Amino acid sequence: MSYNLLKGKKGIIFGALNEQSLAWKIAQRCSEEGAQLVLTNAPIALRMGEINKLSEETKSPVIPADVTSMDDLKKLFEDSVKHFGGGIDFILHSIGMSVNMRKGKHYTELDYGFTQKTLDISAISLHRVLRTAWEMDALNEGASVVALTYIAAQRVFPDYNEMADAKSLLESITRSFGYHYGVKKKVRVNTVSQSPTRTTAGSGVKGFDGFINYAEKMSPLGNASQEDCANYCVTLFSDLTKMVTMQNLFHDGGFSFTGVTNAVIEQMEK
Ligand SMILES: NC(=O)c1ccc[n+]([C@@H]2O[C@H](COP(=O)([O-])OP(=O)(O)OC[C@H]3O[C@@H](n4cnc5c(N)ncnc54)[C@H](O)[C@@H]3O)[C@@H](O)[C@H]2O)c1
Questions:
Q1: I need a surface site. Which of 20, 161, 195, 227 has the fewest CB within 10 A?
Q2: Which residues does residue 90 pair with via DSSP β-bridges, in sequence order?
Q3: Whole-prediction pTM value?
Q4: Cα distance between residue 52 and residue 256, in whole Å
């Protein structure tokens, strides 16, 4: 069902890799709500070709950009502004990669070179994106930027590894840049802290099945799905939330404020 919440708006969607990706569903919902989109991902991810399906479905061009390259980002914004014939109204940052996790390095034995790469891809990239837009004045007044994060930024989830540190930094950049962009152009910057969700990045976390089942039992509403996440992001890109900025918004069925549930207690008593 469409409410036309994004009619006439133009947005850049980072991070749609395949149909499981949170960004994929968000792009579909934004398109249903009337937005025009540019899709982008790292050149290596585009080689898999799946994004072409989404591009056809949403009638959006795909512009490659490695989010750690300022040259790529500059070109992405230049091409997007050209494509839209004007400024950008919203951006989704849906990017994460833990190099240590991939290489099987435990948190207590991090390779710092890998860690720097993780921080750059997963957190500093938000600064790079905002800075590129800032320097080109590519965002329209009141534009909305959303980055996806996880509650491991606040609480310990032992197997989330250095991504927990990356998410803390991502949320901090959200506040810091959100301040400056708010003052300059009423641009809003927020993070959405999503329930564990079966995606390529999500399933990379050790013990993911146990983890997702536990979160389901610990959330009064259950885990939020990809579709739920997409609906929530649509509201944040819309004008209905124009005074919300610099926030970390939990989208997790109540998990973040639940001490324990009867379902978990019952499980423990077995
Ligand atoms: N899946 C979950 O359980 C969950 C929960 C909370 C938050 N998140 C966050 O949601 C976001 C999206 O992840 P997802 O679960 O949809 O998985 P995903 O694997 O589908 O998405 C991650 C994306 O990051 C992109 N990426 C990696 N390196 C890049 C680079 N150098 N330049 C540009 N793009 C790059 C990948 O190509 C991919 O499209 C991430 O920030 C993730 O941490 C996921």
A1: 227
A2: 11, 144
A3: 0.98
A4: 36
pLDDT at residue number 12: 99
Count of CA atoms in the C-beta half-sphere (13 A) of 32? 15
215 Cβ neighbours under 8 A, 6+ residues apart: 195, 196, 223, 252, 255
Domains of the chain, residue spans? 10-269
Number of continuous H segments (helices) and E segments (strands) in the chain:
12, 6
Q: Which residues of the chain have pLDDT under 70?
A: none
CA 95, CA 119: separation in Å to the nearest integer?
Answer: 11
Q: Are 83 and 104 in contact (CB under 8 A)?
A: no
Fold of 10-269: Rossmann fold (3.40.50)
CA-93 nearest atom, ligand 1: 41
Tokens of 7: 């009619």
β-bridge mates for residue 108, sequence order? none
Ligand 1 site, residue 15, Cβ cutoff 6 A: yes
- Say if ligand 1 is within 6 A of residue 199 CB: yes
What percentage of the chain carries pLDDT values higher than 70?
Answer: 100
